[in-house]
């Protein structure tokens, strides 16, 4: 599900489940955490195989959490942990987004240092349409990236936006036909300077308490909307 390839200063991490639009199970999240957490290269390039970046959580696995609030909260915390691993990595993590980034997939991209979309990329938080929301740190990061007003409208509507809109609202940093070229350009710089600069730019306020409340709200919704989640899977 997760492939790793090291090529000089760049570690390429590929979410490789194209038939499921690279949706992540618990095992997939743990493998992703390991792939990024063990990086010794100064640059990590994260992308998806096939026609999507990442559809987020595997809804079949989410549906199996019905009736078990503790497991639902634990699943949210696992996704949050992976996003923190991305955010806290000493490596510069570049997301190359080609095709849809949805729900948890978008949240993982939000945790990356640089988000580069292709003209074909699209972005959305559709969970609200069936009674959920992304709970991998998105409620913490989305307002910081887009601004609170745009983040509220985007998340509450459940709509998808195209690459141009994502660029205007700050969801992506660059729009390129070849997102990897941005990672290669960053890799030309001094690794120690990159790591130091990331530490300083990432030095922000309290995050853990917000994430605990996010996981609790997600667990409540998994229980309340079990039938709606099942309907999406039918």
UniProtKB/TrEMBL annotation:
InterPro entries: ClpP/crotonase-like_dom_sf, Enoyl-CoA_hyd/isom_CS, Enoyl-CoA_hydra/iso
Signal peptide range: none
Gene3D superfamilies to which the protein is assigned, alphabetical: 2-enoyl-CoA Hydratase, Chain A, domain 1
One Gene Ontology MF term: catalytic activity
Species whose genome carries this gene: Natrinema altunense (strain JCM 12890 / CGMCC 1.3731 / AJ2)
One Pfam family cited in the UniProt record for this chain: ECH_1
Protein's UniProt name: Enoyl-CoA hydratase
Family to which the UniProt record says this protein belongs: Belongs to the enoyl-CoA hydratase/isomerase family.
């Amino acid at each position: 599900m997760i492939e790793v390839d090291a090529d000089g200063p760049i570690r390429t991490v590929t979410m490789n489940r194209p038939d499921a639009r690279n949706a992540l199970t618990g095992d997939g999240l743990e493998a992703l955490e390991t792939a990024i957490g063990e990086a010794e290269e100064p640059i990590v390039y994260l992308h998806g195989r096939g026609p999507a970046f990442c559809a987020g959580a595997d809804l079949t696995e989410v549906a199996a959490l019905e009736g078990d609030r503790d497991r639902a909260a634990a699943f949210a915390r696992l996704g949050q942990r992976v996003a923190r691993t991305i955010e806290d990595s000493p490596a510069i993590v570049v997301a190359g987004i080609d095709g849809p980034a949805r729900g948890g997939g978008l949240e993982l991209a939000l945790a990356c240092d640089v988000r580069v979309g292709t003209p074909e990329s699209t972005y959305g938080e559709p969970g609200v349409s069936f009674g959920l929301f992304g709970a991998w740190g998105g409620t913490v990061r989305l307002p910081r990236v887009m601004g609170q007003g745009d983040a509220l409208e985007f998340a509450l509507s459940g709509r998808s936006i195209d690459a141009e809109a994502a660029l205007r609202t700050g969801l992506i940093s660059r729009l390129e036909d070849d997102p990897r070229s941005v990672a290669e350009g960053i890799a030309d710089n001094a690794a120690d300077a990159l790591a130091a600069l990331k530490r300083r730019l990432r030095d922000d306020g309290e995050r853990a308490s917000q994430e605990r409340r996010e996981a609790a709200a997600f667990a409540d919704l998994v229980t309340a909307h079990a039938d709606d989640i099942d309907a999406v899977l039918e």
